[in-house]
Amino acid sequence: MTESPPRDDLIPPVPRITLQAFCETAEVAAALEAAAADRRMVKAHVRVQTGGVPAAVAAYSQAPTPNVVLLETRMTSQPDFLAQLDQLSEVCDAGSKVMVLGHVNDVGFYRELIRRGVSEYLIAPVEPIDLVRAVSGLYATPGAPPVGRTVAVIGAKGGVGASTVAHNLGWSFSRKLAMATVIVDLDIAFGTAGLDFNQAPPQGIAEAIFAPDRLDANMVDRLLSKCSDRLSLLTAPAVLDRTCDLTETAFDQIIDILRTSTPAIVLDVPHVWTAWARRVLIGADEVVVVAAPELASLRNAKNLVDLLRQARPNDRPPRVVLNQASLAKRPEIAAADFAKALDVALSAAIPFDAQLFGTAANNGQMVAEIQPGSKPAEAFDELAQAIAGRPAERRGARAASLLDPLLSKIVRRKAS
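RESULT FIELD:
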């Protein structure tokens, strides 16, 4: 049985560290520069230099070492390189981690490096994502539960139902996949998460972002509104008593706190284009763009998809959901044409059902609560399964029964 390759979207983000690399080839330097631009490295301060180990020894004989030192070597003589490494150890701070990127695949050499305290050995050539994974692995706690994954949902245009998709998706994570989930409403002034789940908590996300000095895990836990055993909300106040001119990093701290304790975090991103919205989208583990089958949605969705592809070169393209499809008597862009224009496969095409969605909205319920077997409810479940990396259930498949072994014996006897 072959081992499945590691999923790039499960790589935990790198903490706030400093990393200095001393390269000997332009190819490795370019890979490091690309890795430094990856969304998971956004908090790391990376500096790429040339000169290999001798340059590192010269630099740190007069300056403190960073959190991580990455050294490239093309030397094939192990004793010569190990001698250089011993020189570095004399000027390297005890708390610094050392990574070596070599051009020789030698198990004995690797073991000798580990014995000398080297944290990781990589073999050239390397891809940027391999470097990101290696640096992230230096700070991953063995045996610790996986860091929570963020799913940012944004509408290509106002009124396309992005919040409805985000909320029903979070519901599917919690109910269908039994994952502890938090839905975070980032629309401070006009958020609808509280309405959609029939919740009216006295506190919410505004208390967190307007008091960052007091923000910690206990405070976030107090601000969460519990909908079920596995689903909680971080609602927006939806009042206009103050303006919301937020900084680019306004939501960083609260998302980081949620990632430490919650497997699935659904970010309901409003249809605005600000520095913080762009940062949230680029930094998310998954992005879902919701569009309606009309021209303005197509144009905006293409702009979003193209930007995110460029800004997230080591991630899968954004998922595109075509919402409010098959509306009677309305001219629409066909789903196939929509997907072709974006050059992405649609993750879901959700038919519009005025009665179902209207009833759910007015009752403060999800569509699966109103009509569990409906096509929209199934679409949300399948989208959640795809994002979580779980195989979709076959429609019409019969649930396993305790009587199955006995029934199969009877069938075999009759057949004989």
